[in-house]
């Protein structure tokens, strides 16, 4: 995201950030809380999740090095509507909200680029809603694994069935069945919380069209 800035702007922006270590499962922002910091993942990635009836939750968007978290500030809204949960541990740039607002005024080109990213997130939210309603769990799981692999930059993903069930908003038995189906097709290998992507192209073909649509939209807009 930030690599598209002019060198002088990039240096100024990064100098105003601090590098932080994000831990798996860490909640960066709670639903309805004020945004105190914005985050730009470097090698970490963050899930945006919505809760329902206390113990149910669903991932609706994901941000890695291609994006940011805290984007409600771009609309002048201090409250964040979702939970920002660290899905992949690693480093991120963190900037406090007041400094971020000043930077947006100082660098209009950055503000425009981040607003275009916000548009991508809005479309992703709508795409995820449709995907959750219309597509089979197996195809949705394939899409989610591809999205995670893109941001993890690794073919090996440490994910339990319980965690996947929460991300996809389905029962654990549904995730187990879907994972076994993908494994029987030699697309992934799953053992004790470790998923290895064996055939990425095959996994893309097994996923719903939402994955390709997400990638195409990002390339088109950003």
From TrEMBL:
Pfam families recorded: HTH_Crp_2
CDD domains: CAP_ED
GO cellular component terms attached to this protein's record: cytosol
Keyword DNA-binding among record annotations: yes
GO terms assigned for molecular function: DNA binding; DNA-binding transcription factor activity
Stretches assigned to the Cyclic nucleotide-binding domain: 1-114
Boundaries of every HTH crp-type domain copy: 135-201
Protein keywords: DNA-binding, Transcription, Transcription regulation
Record-linked SUPFAM superfamilies: cAMP-binding domain-like, Winged helix' DNA-binding domain
Repeat recorded as keyword: no
Protein name per UniProt: Crp/Fnr family transcriptional regulator
Organism: Halomonas salipaludis
């Amino acid at each position: 995201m930030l690599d598209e800035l002019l060198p002088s702007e990039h240096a100024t922006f990064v100098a105003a950030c601090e590098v932080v270590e994000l831990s798996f499962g860490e909640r960066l922002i709670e639903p309805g809380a004020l945004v105190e910091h914005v985050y730009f993942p470097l090698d970490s990635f963050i899930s945006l999740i919505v809760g329902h009836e206390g113990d149910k939750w669903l991932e609706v968007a994901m941000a890695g090095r291609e994006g940011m978290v805290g984007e409600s500030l771009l609309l002048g809204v201090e409250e964040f509507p979702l939970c920002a949960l660290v899905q992949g541990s690693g480093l991120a740039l963190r900037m406090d909200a007041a400094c971020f607002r000043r930077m947006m005024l100082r660098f209009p080109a950055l503000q425009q680029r981040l607003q275009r990213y916000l548009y991508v997130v809005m479309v992703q939210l709508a795409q995820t809603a449709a995907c959750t309603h219309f597509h089979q769990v197996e195809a949705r799981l394939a899409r989610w694994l591809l999205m995670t692999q893109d941001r993890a930059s690794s073919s090996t993903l440490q994910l339990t069935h319980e965690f996947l069930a929460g991300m996809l908003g389905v029962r654990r038995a549904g995730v187990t069945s879907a994972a076994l189906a993908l494994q029987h097709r030699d697309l992934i290998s799953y053992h004790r919380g470790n998923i290895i992507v064996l055939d990425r192209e095959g996994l893309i073909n097994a996923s719903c069209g939402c994955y390709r649509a997400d990638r195409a939209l990002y390339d088109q807009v950003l």
